[in-house]
Amino acid sequence: MPNKSVGESKKQGALDHCEHTGRPAYIEVGVTLTQMRPTGLVNVRVRPDNLAVESIRNKLGCDLPTVPGTVESSSDCHILWIGPTEWLVTMSSCEGSVASEVLSAALAEFHAAVNDVSDSLHIIRVSGEDARLVLEKGCSLDLHQREFRPGRCARSVIAKATVLLHQTDDAPSFELYVDRSYAEYLWRWLEDAASTLVGVKRQE
Amino acid sequence: MFQIDCPFCGPRWQVEFVCGGEAHIERPINPDMLSDDEWADYVFMRTNSKGMHYERWCHIHGCRQWFNAARDTVSDKIHATYRMGEKPPELSS
User: Fold this and answer.
1) Cα-Cα-Cα-Cα dihedral of A163, A169, A171, A172, to 10°?
2) How far apart, in whole angstroms, are the C-alpha atoms of residue B69 and residue B22?
3) Which of A69, A86, A157 has its CB closest to that of B9?
């Protein structure tokens, strides 16, 4: 049964009913899908000059990544690079409203936009030895480990849905940040992609 | 697979991009001084070149940034991409 313990939120998730469909296929192929429960997601737009980066570092203990497609992490937060002036901050220790207040305070003196997007994005974790095979069925990014490693992120398209993809470890595990209205579609597509891999593996 | 080299993210699949039409069209400094024909030329008229064409693209499903591309309209080959505000490279088709 997928792990539901990440972040004890009482909010209903868009995928709550999908976790009980009981399709075992994706377990056979070494892929586990998990609905993640983040507590705070904040979109930040600011020009990354030294003062703004320092102000965020002082508040969160985490740098703004300025290299395209990279993630900076601290004990309770990740900052994902979306664009040269745009980031997604994920906080595991507080709600989005609190996280956005913290960031608003950090950037009060700068020309910046801070938006709580906790309710608009859903996170699906795809992990296991065959995770890359499943994602590669619908994604044009080069996910080979020489190119895409833990600590990398990329905003791209998976099976026609816009997704922010973040590799978190070498299992490999990928976290897909997807708009809430696409979450169920993407979940079912991932289940289907994984289940057809069973056939591929049996033919080998 | 048709790839476009985003100046920020590197080469990505074309479906992540949208085209925004011809690039390097400057808004007239004083629109009040223009005739209707001159204004219509600025608003509506675009070159329809056979060969090298400079156009704007947006990496809408990626970094969401606008940039410029020099594309050959015959072969569809993109010869260069460069950031907004940068001068177009000298290219011959």
Assistant:
1) 30
2) 10
3) A69
Q: Are residues A59 and A23 in the same domain?
A: no
Q: Which two tokens stand for residue A57?
A: 């570092």
CATH code of residue A157: 3.30.1360.120
- Across chain A, which has 204 residues, the per-10-residue mean pLDDT values are 46 71 57 82 94 92 94 93 96 89 94 94 91 93 93 96 96 94 93 76 48
Which of these three, A93, A116, A139, is where a domain ends?
Answer: A116
Distances (CA, A) of B71 to B11, B18, B22, B82, B90: 15, 14, 11, 12, 13
Tally of domains within chain A = 2
Residue from the list A82, A83, A157 with its beta carbon closest to the beta carbon of B16: A157
- Chain A residues in contact with B67 by the CB 8 A cut-off are none
Say how far apart CA A64 and CA A72 lie, in whole Å.
7
Does one domain contain both A124 and A51?
Answer: no
Helix (H) or strand (E) holding A203: helix A180-203
Amino acid A4: pLDDT:
42
Q: How far apart are CA A23 and CA A17, in angstroms?
A: 13
For residue A120, give how far its alpha carbon lies from the nearest alpha carbon of chain B (Å): 16
In this prediction the ipTM stands at 0.88
The answer to whether the CB of B82 falls within 8 A of the CB of B6 is: no
CA distance A183 to A192: 14
Q: Chain A: give the shortest CA distance to residue B3, in Å.
A: 10
Look up the CATH number of the domain holding residue B50: 3.30.2270.10
All residue ranges of chain B with pLDDT < 50 are none
* Domain with A148 in it: 18-37+120-203
